[in-house]
Structure formats: C-alpha cells, structure tokens
Amino acid sequence: PNPIIRDPQVFLENNQVVLQGQIVTDLMTSSGTLTATVAVDQNGTPKVNIVSAQFGSFPIPTALLDAVSQMVDQAINDNINQTSGSNLKIEAISIADHLMTIVLKNK
C-alpha cells in the first residue's frame, strides 16, 4: 500500500525545502513533515539531502532518509537527462526569500 499525501504545502526557508501534509495509509492518517537541503556538486549534479522527516510524532530513521535522498537524486537526474539531452549544466541552486533559484549553463 502506497501512502498518499493530502494537502501538501512546500515552504522554502532557511536554505531548506520543507514539505508538510497529511499522509494517508491504509491503516491511518497523520501529519508529516520532511525537511531537505539542495546543493550542486562539481559536475553540476543536483544533490538532495533529507535532513529530517516525521510521521506524526515519530521521527524517520536516518538510514531511511539517506536511502530516500538517493532515490530522489536519481529521479531528478534521470528527468534532467531526459529533458535536456544533457546539454545543460546546473551551476548553482539557492533558496532565499521563499524562492528557489537554479542557475543553468549550456555545456
């Protein structure tokens, strides 16, 4: 059974992305919060680091956060490669004043 997020809200604050919503499973519904940072490595590859997550009052273990961060990285990079044909390189990603700015450059 896959959980569904209802009423999702995304906040861009303190150089972080904060996702909040109601997580609905077959067994229960509870509030959830996920906090992540986003950066770019020297090759122009975006890297997502999920720094914390909670399901209700229960924190999600670090090992699971790391695994999900890797899956998100892969999904983002697959999408970038499919849509840009790898002609674009991400130079920077920043979060400030409730905005995310992504700087791209042609390779």
Quick overview:
The protein is α+β, with helices and mostly antiparallel strands.
Distance between the termini: 42 Å
Estimated radius of gyration: 15 Å
Structural class: alpha+beta
Low-confidence stretches: none
Shape: elongated
How would you spell out the order of helices and strands? EEEEEHEE
> Would you tell me the overall average pLDDT?
88
Number of helices: 1
State the helicity in percent bands.
Answer: 10-25%
Walk me through this protein's architecture:
The chain has a five-stranded antiparallel β-sheet. A two-stranded antiparallel ribbon has the order 6-7. The radius of gyration is 15 Å and the shape is elongated. Strand 1 (4-13) and strand 2 (16-24) form a beta hairpin. The protein is α+β, with helices and mostly antiparallel strands and 107 residues long. It starts with a strand and ends with a strand. The chain has one helix spanning 62-84; strands spanning 4-13, 16-24, 29-40, 46-55, 58-59, 88-96, 99-106. The mean pLDDT is 88. It contains one helix and seven strands; from the N terminus they run βββββαββ.
